[in-house]
Structures are given as C-alpha cells and as structure tokens.
Amino acid sequence: MKKRFGLVLGIFMLILLCIPSTRAFAAGYAEDLDSGTSVNELSTYVINTGSDAEFNKIKTYKVYVPGDTKEVILPITFDQKGLFICSAQLSEEYESVYGDFKIYADEACTSEIRYDSYNSEAKILKKGTYYLKFSVNDYASDTAPDSYIFAFASQFLNGTDRILKDKAWVCSGNTDTQKPIYYKLTVPKTGSITVNVESQYSSYVTLLSSSKKALSDKTYSSLANSNVCFAVNKGTYYLKVESSAELFRVKYTFKAISDGSGTSKAKAKKLTAGKSLAGIVTATDKTGKVDWYKVTLTKSQAVKITFTGSVSSGKIKLDFYGGGISGSITETLDTVDEDASFAAETLTSTKLPKGTYYIKITKGTKNTSGFYNIKLNK
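Predicted structure:
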C-alpha cells in the first residue's frame, strides 16, 4: 500500500512543480490545489474505507516560503490518532538550495514529532493541532526570491478502534505495534466470517465476544494466505488485530449458513448420494455439541465421503463408524479451504458391508469454530 502512495505522490510532485501559480499569493501561505484558494492552515485527506480507489487519494498544496525569513509554519488539526503519510519537495528551479520539512506538537516548534522521510510518515499519537515547518537554506543566491515553493501531499489513516461493515475494507495507521486495534462487527444471523488482513508483515487475529472475551485462539494471518475464518451466531463481536506493520487494512465477508445436521444420534441426518449438506460449529457452541449424520447401505458397496471446510481456530473432528468396520475413521479440518475427504474401507475390502453407519462431528476445543460441507459419494 505504501508503494501505491509513493507512485501517486511521485507523479503528483512532477506535475505540480511544473504548474505555475495562477493567483497572486502572499508569501508564507499555501495554495490549496483542490479549491485554488490561499490558506494559512493545512488539512489532509482522511482514508475511511481503505478501498483501492480511496487509498490513492491525497490532499495537495503548493507551499510558499518567504524569501526573507526562509521558513513558514502552518498548522494542521487531526481528529484522532493515526498515521500521517506525507511528503514535501522543494522545487528544483532553485540552485544550491536545501529544503527541510519538520512536524511539531506545539506552536513554538520545540516539541518535534519524528518524521520518517524514507517511509514518508509520522505517528500522530493523539488528536489535536500540530505544526508543519517548511524551511530552506540558500547557499548560492545573494538575492533571495520573493518565495520558495514546496509541493506538499498527504493522507491520514485512522489509528483508533473501528467499526467494520460486511465486505468493506478499513485501513488503519498503527501508531503502536505493541498494542492491538479492535474492530467491532455485527452479524445478522448464524454464519461464517472470513477475515482478510492485508499487511506488509504477518498479523494475528483473535475473535472476541461483545464484552471482548476471547472466543478463538490467537490466529496467524500470513502474507501468503491472509484469510482467517470463524463461525458465529447472530450477535456483536470484535476482531482483535495485532500486527508489527504500521499500515494495514482489514475486511470481513459474512456468509449465512444453515446447519443441516441432526442434533442426536437418534435424529441423525441421512446422507443422500450426491447431495451436499452444510454444517457449522460456532465459537459459542458448547464443546459437547455433536452434529450427527448417517449413511444407510442396502448392499455392500464403495463409499467416499467428501468433507471440506474452513477452520482457523482449533479443529473440527469427524468420526465415521458402524458395525461393518472395526473402530472408526477419523478426519479433521483445521485450516482455511481444507479438503479432508476420504474413502471408507475395511481392512480387507474397498467396499463396506450392508448396514447403517454414523458420522459424528464434534468441536475439537473450546475455541474451535468453522464450517464444513459433507457429501456421500457411492
């Protein structure tokens, strides 16, 4: 995402510094490129959704530094803490002139905020008014121009806890990588939430209740596979996201799921050949909850069970057993988009004897949640 900003900013700088001013400006002011008006206080573009289109938006200015004082200080106000991504570039028309840009927390410019010029960012740790100081050192000219011109572009990423909406990205500027950011979400019915975290580094996601009690394990989100999946009942939840990256974005996608299983062995749902049934194990289900299915064979025949699903915390365990086999066949799901399908065979045959067989699906741990699909193939 930073590379995207850098590309946009680089193009902007090249274009901006080639455009002559169309207005008469008093030295020590800035020109708002959106409105074409002169201002003595700056603002920035605040990223809200974190979509690709919005992330490319920036606020742009030409900043005029008086030739006599060789510096100008302009205030900017932030409504919350976050990451201020910005860059200032002095026009190349001046020979042997060095431009400098700094950020301060006070009007007297004594409390400097660390500005990382390599990554074009500064951490704003609390809301309030800050002060941007543009200055030049002119080593060549005996007669300074009326004003020196900087190109300035910026955007701001909220670093506070946020509210997530289904399928909508939220971009965050992480001001303290030792602390998590909490994202509140509300699901309308029982189903799965697939969480996607895009980050320069790997992250960890934990599903929390409405009172911020952990309902899942601390789940790893890698660069190769950033999807994390949980299953929940209707209600309000939080996602606790921990990342060593200062800039990342988060999105979740909700999918309603109706559980097709039986609630007891006596009420086991019969699997019909070729028909897939959906099941779900939610974060708030008791560990003793069991989903029941049965397979009835009227003759000896080969049986294959398709067992697929997504689990990011704990394991969903399947046991297949019956009078025709010794013991049981056990399979588990513990990753996203996992396929644990199997052929049910005896020690001496690829076919099972005539009879009734049962499938018992259980929650591996208290913090297990996920969904699965099951189908009988004969």
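Summary: Residues 2-8, 19-26 have pLDDT under 50 and may be disordered.
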